[in-house]
Structures are given as C-alpha cells and as structure tokens.
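Entry 14. Ran structure prediction on the chain below.
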Amino acid sequence: MTTVLATSQPPTDRRDSRRLPRAASFWLVAATTAALLAASSAPSPLYPVYQAEFGFSAVTLTAIFAAYVLALLTSLLTVGRLSDFLGRRPVLAVSLVVEAGAMAVFLDASGVPALFVARLVQGWATGAAIGVLGAYLLDLQPANGSRLGSLMNSVAATGGLGVGALTSGVLIEYAPHPTRLVFVIFTATFLVLALTTALLPETVERKPGAVAAMLPRVSVPASARSAFARAVPTMTSTWMLGGLMLSVGGSLASVVFGQHNHAVVGLLLGAFAGSAALTSLLLQNRRPDQMEQFGVIALFSGTVLFALALVTTSLTLFVVAVVIAGIGFGPAFLGAFRTVSQLAEPHQRAGLISAVFVVSYLAFSIPAVVAGLLITEVGLRDTALGYAVVVAAVAAWTVAQSIAGRSAR
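Output, structure tokens:
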C-alpha cells in the first residue's frame, strides 16, 4: 500500500536521472506560476477593446469576469486537492494543456460567446493548477528551514499578474493584431510548459482517495485552522483591492483619468502587481506577522489615496495610490500565506493552498461583480469610490485586530 511521503523529498524513482535537479525544478515551477497568473491578467487591458469591437455592455463584461471566477472556484473546490492523491506532475500537465486550449479560444474569439467559453475554460485550468503549483513550490524549496517556497508563491503570482497586464497593454497599443498576438504567445508557452512537466521530479506518491477528494470542500488541516481564520481578513482586503484593479482599473484609467494609451493602462495595472512583488522580495526576511501588519497599513493608505484620486480626478495621485496599494498587497498576502502554509504536512499542502485561494478569489470576485452591476446605475467613478471605501474599512479593521492581538500578548 502506498503512502504519502512524510517529508518533501521525492520518492525513489529509477527515472530520476531523467529529471531536472530540484533547484532547477523549483525555478521552472515558479516560472510556470508566473505565466499562469500573467495569462489571467492579460485580458484586463483588452476588455475596453473587446467592448468596442463586439459592442457589449458593462453588465456583460461583469458576467464574463464572473464566469471566469466561478469556474476557477469550482475547480479549486473539486480538483484543488487532487495532486495530493495522484501526484503533482499529471495534474499540472493536464491543467496546462487545458490552459493552452483556453488561450486558443481567445485567439479565435469573434464574439461574446467565445469570450465566455475562453474564460470558463481558463478559470477551470487556473483553479486546477494553482494548488498544484503552490504545493510544488513548497515541496521543492531548499531544505533546512527555507521559506523560499512561500516567497515565490507570492512573488511569482503577483509578478505574473503585473507582467501579463503590462505585456498585453503594450501589444494592444503597438503590435499588429492586438486581440490575437498575446494569445499566440500564451498558447505556445503553455504547450511548452506542459511538455516540461515530464522533467519535473514527483514529490508525492499516489494513494487511494482521489475520487473522494473531488467532492466539493475546503480542506484546512486542524493544525492550521486557527491561523487560517486569523488570516482571512488580510486575504480578503488584499484580494478585494486586486479585484478592483483588474476588473475596472483599465476603464478607470480611460474614463476618469483620460488615459487612452493601452500601454500606459497596462503599465498602471502592472505597477500595482509589480510593486507588490518587489516589496515582498525586500521584506522576505521579516517575521510573517510584521510583513502582514506593514502590508495592511500600506494597503489602507493606498486605498485612501485611491479614493482621493477618484474625487479629485488627479492622475498623479492615482499612480501614487496604485503603487502604495501594491506595496501593501505583496507583504500582507505573503505574511498571511507564510503563516498558514508552514502548518501543513506535505500531503496536505495542495488542499490548504486551494483553500487560501478560494477565500482570496471570493474576495477578488464578489465585490467586483457587484461593482460591475452597480456601474450601470451609479456610474463608474462613484462605484469605484464606494468599493475603495469598503476595502479601506476592511483593511482598517484588520490593522485594529492585529494591534489588539499584539496588546493582548
């Protein structure tokens, strides 16, 4: 009877000589994570282009966004733990092939139905892959107490979001076939990455229970539940703001702040995610609780400035707010993720990481969908302003809880 390994060392395999070394495998998985998240943000600068080309409303755009998140959450809840039972490599390979299929649908999109299909397929593939990749990074990180796995889970994800938005914006503005070229690149990328999974070492042995693991559930080990509950407000405030940026950030830049250059819009969206990744790198040696508290305070400050920028229609203030909010997003999420992830055994990692992203994407999606529906009633700027006030309130409450917790200790 096979058992899950008690450590993150790979099982003995006569074919190990054909695999990449663990260090090289780690960085390949980190690059795959960045590519996956880049693909998820690439459509954001394209939404205004699609609206102009296909003539659909803000409500339809919201529905397309909701379809992606619904598929992603369904995938996280059903196949998010599957790699803990079947192994990392096969689940990752299938997810990347499906992701390439989603990019191909985008590539040939000629109307709203194709956009729905593409986002549904992409959501499923992203949800299936994200738990595997997160667990893989923890499995393959250097031994001796290294925290590189949790760092890359945050940096690769946020960096990927930034690269995807920036690349898409630049290609839209300056390259031929703006709604096609970016997806040609991503289709080829994911097919190549799917092939490279054959070179990765397997870090989890197969065990029975794969079918039962696909029953919808959030899997948080008992040892991590208390820390997970404390981290929920941080995950909520960070990803709520991320949802605002990626769902209507491009429209705000154009409609409220008069920026119609798609490359500039991509740069603004990329600045949010890029500053998050850079700050996570700079603060990686701080204690998780210190990173989390610093991040939430910066997130609150950036959100307040964001609201002021909307009121004054100041582009300069908007740029400053985006960067400061990103400075908060990175370490806040990394601190919460690091606290929670270190409490899981290797065979529990994919399930726990999937649970983290279920909470994160619920926070990312529900307010953004509500905001999308409100835009037609109260307008883009007022909706975004109300959204920012809610995010600031959640962040302020999180800071207050953190300070109260420290005082109690």
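Residues 1-14 have pLDDT under 50 and may be disordered. Will compare against last week's run tomorrow.
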